[in-house]
Amino acid sequence: MEQWRSYFDALAVSLSVEDERAVDAVAPPGTTAIPRYTDPAYPIEGRPQRTD
């Protein structure tokens, strides 16, 4: 419980425009910090094959 309470301090942190730019430089908006990461819950299955 003590560890959980310590997380409340993070709510008081405010990021500056420079901070946001630094984060965007590492992981651009809309991407993950891990290149080519694929969520295993949503695997890439490709396009359906034609069967005619």
Q: What would your notes on this structure say?
A:
With 52 residues, this protein is an all-alpha fold. The protein has a domain at 1-26. The protein has helices spanning 2-6, 17-26. The radius of gyration is 19 Å and the shape is elongated. The mean pLDDT is 87.
Annotation keywords:
mainly alpha, 2 helices
Secondary-structure-derived class? mainly alpha
List the helices and strands in order.
HH
Mean pLDDT: 87
Helix content estimate: 25-40%
Q: How would you sum up the global shape? A: elongated
Summarize the structure.
The protein has 52 residues and is an all-alpha fold.
How are the SSEs placed, and which strands pair?
Layout lengths: L1 H5 L10 H10 L26
